[in-house]
Design a protein that fits this description.
4-stranded antiparallel β-sheet; 9 helices; 65% helix; alpha+beta; Outer membrane efflux proteins (OEP); 6 strands; 13% strand; elongated
Length: 448
Amino acid sequence: MPIIMKTEYLSPRACAVLALAAALLAGPAAAAETEAVTYTLPQLVQRALSLSPPQRIAQASVGLAESQRDTALAALLPQLGAGVSQTRQTTNPATLGFEFPGLPSLIGPYSVFDARVKLSQAVLDFARHSELSGAGHAVEAARAEAEQSRERIAAQVALSYIQVLAGEQAVEAARADLVLAEDLLTLARDQREAGVASGVDVARAQTAVAQDRYALSEAETAIASSRLQLQRAAVLPMDAPLALGGQLEASPAATPSAAQALDEARGHRAELAAIEAALKQADAELRAARQRRWPTLALFADYGQSSRTPVRAEEDTYRYGASLELPLYSGGALRAGEDAARLKLEQQRERAEDLRQQVEQDVRLALATVQNTAEQVKAATATRDLAGRELELARDRFLHGVANNVDVVSAQASLARARSQHIAALAAYQQARVNLAAAQGRAHAFEL
């Protein structure tokens, strides 16, 4: 319950107490503002798909294609317009076919006012119908390309996410290696004090500590770079702390067969949908190029008022009719347009065939990589465990004075190497899973 104090004067001591209380209350709020926000992979993918500039550009391309389709449609719809004119002119009646004795050679000047509504409608225009069909397929292609952009962004975010998780584990492993090296340095010094080890053993342990410090610095540099890359891919503030909620370790997922993966890719790869739409668009453009040789039929009409001035001697006038046009000779433009459309269609067919082969290659390579990296994870896990056991044995031998610390330092280096290989194998396996999902057109649904 708030306490309301009414006073006209506060002493300096009271002001200081109030300021201190305000600072204490504001402290947790300020700390909360700088606290890292934990993100899961689906959250970052959705954020990137909503805010990424490349995705916005792709969506704008869809809108552009739809506008071009609407323009093609408008050419087949009734055209309604209005016009008003007021002129002052002279006329030679001979140009109108009037040649009578006594008729002056020049009439006027006189005023002419005209205001009318005009209507026209294309009745028969096969080329424009084909152009409209091509514009519709262009919209389909733009939508498929936007979906392709979504997949590319989702895959990029997932790969960066895994890279950050691997970097975090690499930093933790480097710190553990440094702590272990410092413990072994302490052991070497104790053994030298006990007369069991020599100064060479201490120097060797100091070298190992220095190397592990360097490795830790490298790992911290790498994780900083990976975080920035993920923040940019997910459209996160670059200066905000970042925490990830996923785990790099995961139970091996069931790998589909090659036939299943290829069926999934053929049904979901946006690139295939885009190239199929582009093929249909090119075919429609070729039909339009051929149909430009065909006759076109249009209806037209206008109705308005003609007079000398807008307010004087007004008369209603109208005109209606039909026009039939047939191109006879265009200087080769129609043939050139048809040849260009045919070549474009052939290009799209070749691109489609190349893309189908590329999709199959992507799927088969991703499957092989997933299987191989899964085996690498098993081997790296066994290597890490064996390296840890080797270090324990070497440390016991050195502790009991049976041997110097050459084996200890060597085993320590082997353990550090095994830890790095294990983390790299885990990251490679998860990234291979991302690539397999992307090869099947399912990168947006990938989960660790």
